[in-house]
Amino acid sequence: MKIKVLSLMFLLLGFTSCLKNQADGVQVLDVATYEKKMTQPDVQLVDVRTPEEFSQGHIENAVNIDFMADDFDAKVASLDKEKPVMVYCKSGGRSAKASARLKELGFKTITDLEGGITNWTSEEKPTVK
């Protein structure tokens, strides 16, 4: 009985967290879905890690805009708010915060990579240096 109740709670929690991400205007996608979406036209791919982390390996065609840097807002101002923005970080924490900030700044379509580049590389997806 306890297992059924716990299973139901986890299912409900997962469902509501997905709804929250949709309601916030930010999609959080698994690696396979994120990779497919990256091929859509006009996608702006943004790595929000530090320049040092970025230089150790990043997804091809990503631009590095460090979320923790003082000039984050100024640098993302160069992006088109009407075109899809796809963000990622190391494991998902900073990109979630960056996604929220992008939403506040008026970006329309924001997608976050679930688990960040850690999940990307664990699924043996390519990176470049």
TrEMBL record:
The family database entries (SUPFAM superfamilies) matched by this protein are listed as: Rhodanese/Cell cycle control phosphatase (SSF52821)
Q: Which residues form the signal peptide?
A: 1-23
Q: Which domain of life is it from?
A: Bacteria
Listed PROSITE patterns:
PROKAR_LIPOPROTEIN (PS51257), RHODANESE_3 (PS50206)
Cross-referenced InterPro entries: Rhodanese-like_dom (IPR001763), Rhodanese-like_dom_sf (IPR036873), Thiosulfate_ST/Rhodanese-like (IPR052367)
Question: What protein does this entry describe?
Answer: Rhodanese-like domain-containing protein
| Organism of derivation | Flavobacterium helocola
- Lineage summary: Bacteria, Pseudomonadati, Bacteroidota, Flavobacteriia, Flavobacteriales
Positions of the Rhodanese domain:
39-129
